Amino acid sequence: MAEIDVVLGDITEQRVDAIVNAANESLLGGGGVDGAIHRAAGPGLAEAGAAIAPCAPGDAKATPAFDLAPVRHVIHTVGPVWAGGGHGEADTLASCYRRALLVADELGADSIAFPAIATGVYGFPTAQAARIAVATVRATPTNATRITFVAFDEDTHAALTAALDG
């Protein structure tokens, strides 16, 4: 079973084999976590993303990490846009975490860092997203030995910590 923890910080500064990008379907970069990862990785990330796009909500695809060394891979996943919760958003979000772990296993990643997928501009309520993230990661078989949830702000850190401790 993987060791799971929560940290407050910048996902681009994590020392892991793979980081997960909360991407948009084009995989060309955007705002929030997606923009930060693209800026840190350099222009090769957008070129690699364009070559494998589109990525459907709930799916995950990998590219090299380019300038994010020592990270070797960026796993792009597209979260659901919150539309009130009655449109399969929870299932799509859970699929993001499951698919990212599957891709990480295919890549041989021993350690992986996740952001709080879909809680930014996509509007998924943070506490609910945190519960789904933690429950899904715990329930998904993986070869990874270390999984880190990286929170960009205190509220997200508190929600992820509560979900992990709950």
UniProtKB/TrEMBL annotation:
Coiled coil: none annotated. PROSITE patterns: MACRO (PS51154). CDD domains: Macro_OAADPr_deacetylase. Residues 1-166 form the Macro domain. SUPFAM superfamilies: Macro domain-like (SSF52949). It comes from the Bacteria. SMART domains: A1pp. Pfam families: Macro. PANTHER family: GANGLIOSIDE INDUCED DIFFERENTIATION ASSOCIATED PROTEIN 2-RELATED, MACRO DOMAIN-CONTAINING PROTEIN. This is O-acetyl-ADP-ribose deacetylase (Regulator of RNase III), contains Macro domain.
